[in-house]
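Thread: Newbie trying to understand structure tokens

Hi all, I'm a second-year student working on a class project, and my supervisor (Dr. K.) asked me to get a predicted structure for one chain before our next meeting. I've only ever worked with sequences, so writing a 3D structure as a token string is new to me. If someone could post the tokens and maybe explain what I'm looking at, I'd be very grateful. Here's the chain:
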Amino acid sequence: MRSSGRDRVLVIMAKAPRPGAVKTRLAPDLSPEAVTDFYCCLLEDTLALARSLRDVEVAIMCPSADVFELQQLAGNQASVVAQTGEGLAAGLTSVFARFTKGQHRVIAFNSDSPHLPRSVLEGAFETLAAHDVVAGPTHDGGYYLVGAKASYPTLFANDGMGTSSAMERLLSRARALNLSVAIATTFYDIDVADDLARLAKELLLTPERAPRTARWLKDRELSVARLRPATGKL
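---
Reply by user tm_fold:
Sure, no problem. This is what the structure looks like when written as tokens:
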């Protein structure tokens, strides 16, 4: 693991790759075992993306029951830290409570957007030099990253997490706290078959963006044609 002492920390929000526990909205289109394998590829590529950033400490935040399995998966690529409390809101609160001490710039990043351009993460860190909070919205109303230099316990409330209003509610809470917020590039994560179809199409052309995931898709011939048609969500 890279040495600490830097002022930039990237924390990946993750779960242990167990059948039925990750990427559950892909279950109608893939078997539980296939979903788990796919999630492992996403997480491994996300770790590689995080490690490609210079002068950034990399960590994984997860439920306490998942620490051992994720330590096995991450090896020496990242420290693995147990969150306090249950659910994503508690996990995000734990990230900033633990890592923002000493005015570190901290970004919490999801584990299913390894195809995000590295420049977006670099830009988010730079943005934090002049703003209290940075957030990266997804096309479905959520967010794939959120960053801050301090801990704001009320910034992440349980209401709206994982819904189409998550980003809107985050911004509303930030305004209530009088925080300056910068918005990163809108992107997409992998939640449903439409997202998977889009990813398969993109990685067919540029597999280097997420090589493990691209190999997994290619090996199983998961093309756009084999997944249900896009609904216009993207």
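A couple of things are worth pointing out once you decode it. The chain has one domain: 8-190. DSSP finds seven helices and seven strands in the chain. Feel free to ask follow-ups in this thread.
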